[in-house]
């Protein structure tokens, strides 16, 4: 089963992911690729407690996730791949462009150097440049917080 | 015990503020509850909002969903702070009862909130 959604969201596993997207896509596994959470089992336990019935969570570092992408993409689970930042998702997309052809920007909030592009997407110039570079390599990048929302193309965010 | 317990309602969008306003309108008690919304927050800023609202006093975190960012932020506060309990599935009935039973111990108040809140849910 191909990865159903590859999402960048700095809230990590939260309601929009497990209820909004998880329900619409009938996902049953959220894979969180995040070095910090992967290094702290007690934080993983909190996220596991926060999973709704019928949905599980797996945790990986960016490096481990790159090695396991094919396993998730070829398994029977309906998988949402999630990272907390653009850098990690970009690295995964470059590691396996055959498995990650589209990236969803779901929540990137205010931070140093960032300006508001959408209510839920703030990007610095460097981040826009990094995303544009990835797009030139063939990855489709859109911002969309929820399934019913309009996917906003990267070009509109960069303008 | 340093004084009556406080309640911090943590949830999505405008729900926490609306619940606190409703409790205040019904009871006239205005110093028992604080609202924390996750609106516009990333993980770190939501945790900071929760910690600020707790203000170092014994408190129950009333969380809207038993999953998601608000739940995670609340559980992280519990993991690192003394004198905090989490009750999920907050409803108006449990908050109305809580504001009049804030002299209980933290454990008693949390258990009571769960019980009162659950009893309010029924198919009639």
Structure description:
The complex is a heterodimer of chains A (159) and B (124). Chain A is α/β, with parallel strands linked by helices and 159 residues long. Chain A is built from 7 helices and 9 strands, in the order βαβααβαβαβββαββα. Chain A has one domain: Fructose Permease (3-Layer(aba) Sandwich). In chain A, helix 5 packs parallel to helix 6. The longest helix of chain A is centred in the middle third of the chain and has 13 residues. Chain A starts with a strand and ends with a helix. By secondary structure, chain B is α/β, with parallel strands linked by helices. Chain B has a single domain, classed as 3-Layer(aba) Sandwich (Rossmann fold). A 4-stranded parallel beta sheet of chain B has the order 2-1-3-4, sandwiched between helices. In chain B, strand 3, helix 3 and strand 4 form a beta-alpha-beta unit. The radius of gyration of chain B is 13 Å and the shape is globular. The mean pLDDT of chain B is 94. Classes of the chains: A alpha/beta (159), B alpha/beta (124). Chains A and B meet through helix 1 and helix 3 of A and helix 2 and helix 3 of B.
General form of chain B? globular
Task: Enumerate the spans of chain A where pLDDT stays under 50 for 5 or more consecutive residues.
Answer: none
Relative helix content of chain A: 40-55%
By CATH, the superfamily of chain B comes out as: Phosphotransferase system, mannose-type IIA component
**Whole-number total of structural domains of chain B:** 1
Largest beta sheet of chain A, briefly?
7 strands, mixed
Count of helical regions of chain B = 5
Number of strands of chain A: 9
Treating each run of at least 4 consecutive H or I residues as one helix, how many helices of chain A? 7
Radius of gyration of chain B: 13 Å
What's the CATH architecture of chain A? 3-Layer(aba) Sandwich
Interface with most residues: A-B, 21 and 19 residues
Q: Would you give the CATH topology of chain A?
A: Fructose Permease
Structural class by secondary-structure content of chain B:
alpha/beta
The side-by-side strand order for the widest beta sheet of chain B comes to 2-1-3-4
Proportion of beta-strand residues of chain A: 15-25%
């Amino acid at each position: 089963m191909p990865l159903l959604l590859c999402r960048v969201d700095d809230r990590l596993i939260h309601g929009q992911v497990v209820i909004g997207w998880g329900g619409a896509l009938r996902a049953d596994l959220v894979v969180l690729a995040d070095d910090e959470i992967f290094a702290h089992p007690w934080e993983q336990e909190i996220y596991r407690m926060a999973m709704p019935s019928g949905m599980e969570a797996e945790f990986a570092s960016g490096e481990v996730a790159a090695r396991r992408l094919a396993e998730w993409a070829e398994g029977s689970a309906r998988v949402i791949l999630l990272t907390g930042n653009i850098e990690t998702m970009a690295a995964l997309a470059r590691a396996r462009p055959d498995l990650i052809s589209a990236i969803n920007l779901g929540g990137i909030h205010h931070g140093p150097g960032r300006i508001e592009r959408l209510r839920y997407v703030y990007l610095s110039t460097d981040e826009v440049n990094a995303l544009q570079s990835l797009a030139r390599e063939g990855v489709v990048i859109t911002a969309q917080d929820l399934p019913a929302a309009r996917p906003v193309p990267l070009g509109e965010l960069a303008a | 015990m340093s004084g009556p317990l406080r309640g911090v309602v943590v949830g999505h969008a405008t729900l926490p503020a609306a619940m606190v306003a409703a409790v205040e309108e019904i009871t006239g008690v205005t110093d028992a509850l604080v609202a924390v919304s996750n609106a516009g927050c990333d993980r770190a800023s939501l945790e900071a909002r929760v910690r600020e609202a707790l203000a170092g006093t014994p408190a129950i975190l009333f969380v809207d969903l038993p999953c998601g960012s608000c739940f995670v932020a609340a559980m992280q506060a519990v993991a690192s702070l003394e004198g905090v309990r989490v009750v999920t599935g907050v409803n108006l009935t449990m908050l109305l009862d809580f504001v009049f039973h804030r002299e209980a111990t933290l454990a008693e108040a949390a258990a009571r909130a769960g019980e009162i809140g659950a009893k309010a849910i029924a198919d009639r």
